[in-house]
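Annex B. Sample input.
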Amino acid sequence: MKVAVLMGGRSPEREVSLRSGHNASQALKDAGFDIVEIDAQADIAQKLFENGADVVFIALHGELGEDGTLQGLLEYIGVPYTGSGVMASAVAMDKCMSKKLFTAAGVPTPGYIEICRDTDIDNIREMLEEKKLEPPIVIKPNSLGSTIGISILYDFDGLEAAVKEAFNYSHKVLIEEFIPGKEITVGILGGKEPFAVPSIEIVPKGEYYTYETKYLPGMSDHIIPARIGEEANILAEELALKAHNALECYGMSRVDMIVREDGKIFVLEVNTIPGMTQTSLLPEAAAKIGIDFREFVKLQVEWALEREKEKPLISRKGPGILGDEVAAITTNKEKQADT
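Annex B, continued. Sample output.
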């Protein structure tokens, strides 16, 4: 079976994606798959057709890879792929929409407001007052991961600059209540019957979990399971599954949380394609229950194929249809070039 590993892309998280993709490729080779690596810059459908991929392993992070756009393309051309589907990918990438669904599902999440690019700074202050959100607060892009573009403010002096920085990465910005406490994450694995892997407590060697502390070896300590007590760990796993299911995720996800000093747990966000680098959290937690990285990626491919079998026959067109469509597009381009 040939597996195309899509990586890189055009997101600000490109470098992390390349590392995730190379790691996944090597593990899939070790598991016995025929592998082709594809940098998802353009002409993805053409490259998949040329390489005859049976299934796609998505190792893309951020926009145009983790947000449902790529998943929609793969659904249209009939190629099975790993991870969550179109809707879950899009909703999980939209932090504000995720929080609305968390609230509807009874999953506790920090208080927040969402703002658009043309919102006046004075109106932002009024919105924060209405929601009774006072510093410290967290300003983050609505649709980006890897802690890129995030600021923590302990007063309102830097509010305008922090909002502008976040808007460099997203068309909407989330301003969220800052909750001091232990930062933990709980991974979810599985297709039709998802299950939680042990929690991880993240202890960054800095003010908070930044891009550098997340991806540079030695910049943070990972403690498995999190030091929050047995009952809290059970609750964290339950909330992670609840959040995963509320967004209808599939295959894998990583649910980030804060555990306040009084023991209350708040869900921050769900990552549908977590990192797969040497310092990544989900593979590390999976290894604690006997799922090494080779088995981890193999299971993702198996769950992708399992989901494909569940689809209505009309949706399972396969790469034959893709071949016809790409060939027609290519022929048309050649004719235009000749004229």
